[in-house]
Structures are given as structure tokens and as C-alpha cells.
């Protein structure tokens, strides 16, 4: 059974940093493109960042470019999201997702597996 498990969320002041992790022990991880999405209260889920199997392609949402960095460790079956210079508008539940075929996508419907999410709260 494929499970994705996010960790690393929490409460941080504006300007601070957090690093999210997503463990994927049951996934043939190196064969999957991966992504991070987020959903704030009352808003739709939105794309944050994606990464291809080899890490060659890493698309980002404009709102996080230059502040967030997505990475992966295929040997550890783990996805990461380093978030720097956090802003209150980054407050959301963050989800990792895995896509079996195709490159890193900005569309949530392209992803096959999802984690349960981890809460990130940024105070002003």
C-alpha cells in the first residue's frame, strides 16, 4: 500500500524558515515525479513546487520562487521542501504528491498519490 507521510510543519514567525519532508516508503520513488501543493482555509488547493525523477526539472509557483526549494533523495525515498523568508500568506496545509507517469506537473489532477498534509502557520 502506497503511503506518503509529510512532516516538518509548525508555527513560525514571518521571515523564518521551515523544512518539510515527505517519506514514501511504499513507492518506487525514483520512478515518480513529485510535487508539493498547499491549501489555505477557504481556498482551493494550489501548486507550490514540483520535481522530476532525476531532479532536472523543478517548476515553482511564482509566489514562492526564490524563497522555496524542492529537492529529493531517491536513496531515502524522501521529498523535501525548504521554505525560507516565510510570509503569513504561506499559511496552509501542505501536501506532497506522487505522479507515476510524466514529468513534474503543476496540475493536481495529474498526481496519483497524496499524503495527509502538514500544517504550516506563519505569524506576522
Write the layout of secondary structure elements.
Blueprint: E1 5-7, E2 10-13, E3 18-23, E4 33-39, E5 46-51, E6 68-73, E7 78-83, E8 92-99, E9 113-114, E10 118-123
Parallel strand pairs: 2-10
Antiparallel strand pairs: 1-3, 3-7, 4-5, 4-8, 6-7, 8-9, 8-10
Q: Helicity, in percent?
A: under 10%
Question: Structural class, judged by helices and strands?
Answer: mainly beta
The parts where pLDDT drops under 50 for at least 5 residues are none
- Strand-and-helix sequence, N→C? EEEEEEEEEE
How many strands appear in the DSSP assignment?
A: 10
Distinct helical segment count: 0
Structure description:
This protein is an all-beta fold and 124 residues long. It has strands at residues 5-7, 10-13, 18-23, 33-39, 46-51, 68-73, 78-83, 92-99, 113-114, 118-123. Strands 2, 4, 5, 8, 9 and 10 form a 6-stranded mixed β-sheet that branches. Strand 6 (68-73) and strand 7 (78-83) form a beta hairpin. The mean pLDDT is 96.
Amino acid at each position: 500500500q502506497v503511503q506518503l507521510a509529510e512532516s516538518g510543519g509548525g508555527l513560525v514567525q514571518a521571515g523564518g524558515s521551515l523544512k518539510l519532508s515527505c517519506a514514501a516508503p511504499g513507492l518506487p520513488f525514483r520512478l515518480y515525479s513529485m510535487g508539493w501543493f498547499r491549501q489555505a482555509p477557504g481556498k482551493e488547493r494550489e501548486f507550490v513546487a514540483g520535481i522530476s525523477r532525476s531532479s532536472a526539472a523543478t517548476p515553482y509557483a511564482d509566489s514562492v520562487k526564490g524563497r522555496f526549494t524542492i529537492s529529493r533523495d531517491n536513496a531515502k525515498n524522501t521529498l523535501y521542501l525548504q521554505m525560507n523568508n516565510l510570509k503569513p500568506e504561506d499559511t496552509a496545509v501542505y501536501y506532497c504528491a506522487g505522479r507515476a507517469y510524466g514529468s513534474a506537473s503543476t496540475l493536481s489532477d495529474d498526481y496519483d498519490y497524496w499524503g495527509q498534509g502538514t500544517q504550516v502557520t506563519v505569524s506576522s
